[in-house]
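The passage that follows is intended for readers who have already worked through the single-chain material. We present the inputs for a multi-component assembly, then the predicted structure in tokenized form, and finally a short commentary. You are encouraged to pause after the input and sketch how you expect the pieces to fit together before reading on.
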Amino acid sequence: MNVSALTPSELKLRLKKTGIYLQTGSFITHLKTTIPSVAKGIGLLYADYPLVEQDGFADFHISLVHPRNLRRWFKPQVLFLFDGNTIFKPLPLDQAFPMLEWGLNWCVSNHVNHCLMIHAAVVEKGGYAAIMPAPPGSGKSTLCAALVNRGWRLLSDELALVRVVDGKLIPLPRPVSLKNESIEIIRRYEQNAIFSRKVADTIKGTVAHMKAPADSIARATEVAQVAWVIFPKYQAGATTCLETLPQSRAFMRVADNSFNYSLLGLNGFKTMASLIDASLCYDFTYSKLDDAIEIFGALKPQPSSK
Amino acid sequence: MVKRFITLYLTDIPNVIPNYLILQALREPEALISLSLPDWDLLIRQARRANLLARICILLDERGLLEQVPPKPREHLEWSRVISERHVQAVHWEITLIRKALAKVGVPVILLKGAAYVMAKLPPAKGRLFSDIDIIVPKDSLNAVEAALMLHGWAATHHDAYDQRYYRTWMHELPPMQHIKRMTVIDVHHAILPETAALHPDSAKLLAAAQPLDGYDDLKVFAPADMVLHSAVHLFHNDQLDQGLRDLVDIDSLLRHFSKLPAFWPNLAVRAQELELTRPLFYALRYAVHLLNTPIPSGMMEAAKSGRPNPLTLIFTDQLFERALMPVHKSCSDWLTGAARQLLYVRATWLRMPPLLLVRHLFHKAFISPKPE
Amino acid sequence: MKWQVISDQAVNCCSWDDELVFYNKLSGDTHLLGSAAAQVLLELRQSPLNALLLTEALAPRLQADNIMHEEFSFQIEHLLNELNTLGLIEFS
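Having made your guess, compare it with the prediction:
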């Protein structure tokens, strides 16, 4: 059963009473909340995700609640609880849905250690995946949103999960986080894309989330082979430029963008080494999405890979 | 409630020994393979909160049972084991660097607690995560040790003048020092209890009995009985009980391991007397038996009774500890748990300081220390 | 007294082009070694050498035309110290 099988009021009630067991990629999250904006966001952006209630096991138990303090009367807030524990400082109530998204990323990036986790977007086409690691502000999510609206499959816009045992990329397709001007850029770029309500004044500016393509969600168990590591950089007015990056340098930069490279020790090193070995590595500067899509369309994997 | 207290008083053991999943798992890991998925769900949450998830993974693996755990919970166990493996590597490296830094000071470094368990490959080290390296050195070489560490990149963490004075005047350790590049923390002790505490285990006796660590000429660890006693002191005089169950697991694990040594139990009883630590030992044995079924010879239990408080106090502390030693998780709490933790915080602080100082300290903590938002 | 690669430390490294990425098993740190440092390490991995012999072995490959021999041997000494600090080689 998918989330969409519940009516909005059923979903709201269930989130309030027992919580839902939501499957995203290979993880199951038990989510409880009484906050209407969260229920609404789930109904909209997670409509196509499976609900799994029969097992009674969840990877992460989370809830979004109102903190018990006086501020609730004049400046309401929201608190993200991981199994009853406060993880982040409370945020204004208006930011409850973005907070859920950030909290879900936190759950994965702080626990999952059978994968090398890289702060990166991952897209795939024709059996080959591109990992796009990048610090915030590089236009990684914008490029990712554009690509997945033009035939690329979304594996993740935040977390590349590289399985330690075989180096395969595990999908975790969730809503794509867009901020500030990117929101309107992607709205114009793809009229049919579904967005959550814009939330202003967050720590990242104005944010909105775009629903993952249905096909990507349906293929959430299908692992992928990496072929490219691309560091995107949006630069207004720049000519599109794909520049080869020495693999040793790429290694260090991907490691810098990893959540658990150091934690995995020797396994982290080995996984990273095979990842880089199997990849062509590039710096990519772009200003026009159409040009970027064209360059991505022309990417060829290393002759030896797969 | 009254009736319950009476029953307790008469039978001398708590009538309700908690039977949380986490305790069952620690007592009898073999039984875990029959757990249902919802039980696994709960156990993993309790164990994660108690910082014992990696330990449970290793206990199962040693028994060849990990493969029989359903895939989902097994994944969580293995995730935590990754952290504990990397932790062991980091501890070894940190100790290598500490040895380098202290090479010229000329005193042997005695490792305490987690660091000692890891380096001596003792069973409590299995899956144990800890943030600081604790060492103890003779009091008269404190200055030399501090200077050598500073020369090698460690710096004092408590810059506040009150905190500095608090540590240097009343505590049994230097203010924690943090390495400026690696951010690792070392606690340098000269005693196992503060100077202000009511109990005064003689550091000289502890240092004199310390044993060289296999394969090192500059590292030592406490003798077996002393190690158990220190672990007990740490647990029952600590104001932070959120790692309480983990600390009790240390004690349980040390006792099971050292019981194979020929004269361990008689030594332990004698040593507790010598070091004036009969009370913490009594509590350690009592709760290890109650909560973790630690096998302890009846003669030892008899001998430990010299450290037993009066019956009323005991009823009270049983109620407190058997709550506060549980993981801070809603499935391991009742309506008294919060109060129990509070009371034990005050008790621990009380035991470490004379009353007037306590008032000053609590006052200072409450009103002056900057609080993190 | 010769410089040598600390045993086991030579195992976990990858080279791409003329650079080396090195995993230090003891510290858990990863280091990127530029071509000169990589050459030093590879040379020492073949056989332990003192600084003088190492400098002689590397000069034909690494010494630029416009620098003096003293300066080059100073550079090699410097690299050896760096590698020593990183815990990759030892002097014994």
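Commentary: The domain at 3-91 of chain C is CATH 3.90.930 (Outer Surface Protein A; domain 3). Residues 69-85 of chain C form the longest helix (17 residues). How closely did your sketch match?
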